[in-house]
Amino acid sequence: MSNHSSVQHLGQAGEALKKNSIAGRKKKDLMLFAAFTVIVIAIVELVIRGLKVPVWIIPAPSKVAVETITNFHHILPHLGITLMEIVLGYILGAIVGVSLAALFYRYEILDKLLTPYILLMVATPMVSLVPLLMLWLGFSPLTKIIAVVLGSFPVILINSALGFKSTDPKRIALGKSLCATEGQIFRMIIFPGALPAIFTGLIIGGIFAIITAIGAEFAGGGSGLGSRILYYSSLMQTPLVFGIIIILALMGVSIYLFISWLAQRYTRWYGN
């Protein structure tokens, strides 16, 4: 009994050391990236100031930061609108994409009939449909949310469907041998096995959601970060344009990091 307890403690200590080592490497990589970013920004600042590049062409990073912070109270309401469009459209797109992928897996006839159309939607920029959506539904935020749904769900669907189809047949056979129902097999074997592919689709779908939302705001309406880019460009306020672009980039990175964190948390078993 004592030997078993000692082995267990050694295993726990090994896992703790492994986690600390991984956390240490990640912290070191993050610090290295932060230092490199500071150096790059400093070099860009010095080059732009040294060459005396006009602000309306390429502003110095310090100018972008000052102008963005100073005018952030004007940007904030539009940031909220864009976030609302992206979050609602993305969540609905994820629900539609994963649900349709499950239906395609369950009913093969749907997969054969509709997959070509889904591929066509992936290949077609959904932003091109925004003028039609605005013609039909007006310039309300609902139009942009629908555009985000249409832009994000096809790629989520395709990745999820591939995940469902790639389930190890031996695991399904094992479930059937244990008299599991189809619902239990899907819930306990197929869906968990598809999670890595689903999360990949969610990451790509999140980027598509941002692109579609901004494209929809370019196409029409006076609200949202896309409309602010056009507005500040027309006034040649280039620092604010760069500031909004940086905000959008941070939104994309945030989606990537959040979904990657979820994937690491819920697919740790994958490949074991």
Radius of gyration: 24 Å
- Average pLDDT for all residues: 86
Estimated share of beta-strand residues: under 5%
Largest sheet: none
Distance between the termini: 28 Å
Order of helices and strands: HHHHHHHHHH
Structural class: mainly alpha
SS elements, strand count: 0
Overall 3D shape: flat
What percent of residues adopt helix (DSSP H or I)?
Answer: over 70%
* Tally of DSSP helical segments: 10
Low-confidence stretches: none
Key terms for this structure?
272 residues, mainly alpha, 10 helices, 0% strand
Can you walk me through this structure?
This protein is mostly helical and 272 residues long. The chain has ten helices and no strands. It has helices at residues 2-51, 61-70, 72-106, 108-123, 130-137, 141-165, 169-177, 182-219, 225-234, 238-266. Helix 3 (72-106) runs antiparallel to helix 4 (108-123), helix 5 (130-137) crosses helix 6 and helix 8 (182-219) runs parallel beside helix 9 (225-234). It starts with a helix and ends in a 6-residue tail after the last helix.
Short characterization:
With 272 residues, this protein is an all-alpha fold. The protein is built from ten helices and no strands.
